[in-house]
């Protein structure tokens, strides 16, 4: 999607990364990180290799440094265990993707198959953010569920 909303989200994310890392990371790495952060959560498992191939062609030789989520990863795992869930790597990754999406968009929908973990990802992320809230990078969230037919 290359509409104005999608481009704005990428630019907002790139700006946030620039403020976070300053001049310690190259613009190519920041641009690629912003593209990945905004787009990867929207793709299916089959589409991700295609997207990574395209970005690899656009940014040849750019190596992505690992992201540092530090305390959030630990708290996501703890919150998952506290809710009686197993904190598998794929589940924690989905929680991180949801958090990154929340940081660049003002609204979102979680869609997927029944019993695929949408509500649990939401609940674990909310619990983890409440526990690590520092007022800057991590903000507490309040969940408000609405009936989609009321909109």
Automatic annotation (TrEMBL):
What are the residue boundaries of the Dynein heavy chain hydrolytic ATP-binding dynein motor region domain, all occurrences included?
1-119
UniProt cross-references to Pfam families, sorted A to Z: AAA_6
Q: Name one GO molecular function term.
A: ATP binding
Known Gene3D superfamilies for this protein? 1.10.8.710, P-loop containing nucleotide triphosphate hydrolases
Q: What InterPro entries does the record point to? A: AAA_6 (IPR035699), DHC (IPR026983), Dynein_AAA1S (IPR043157), P-loop_NTPase (IPR027417)
Entry's Gene Ontology BP terms: microtubule-based movement
Q: Which domain of life is it from?
A: Eukaryota
**One cellular component (GO) term of this entry:** dynein complex
Protein name in UniProt: Dynein heavy chain hydrolytic ATP-binding dynein motor region domain-containing protein
* Originating species: Alexandrium monilatum
Q: What is the lineage of its organism?
A: Eukaryota, Sar, Alveolata, Dinophyceae, Gonyaulacales
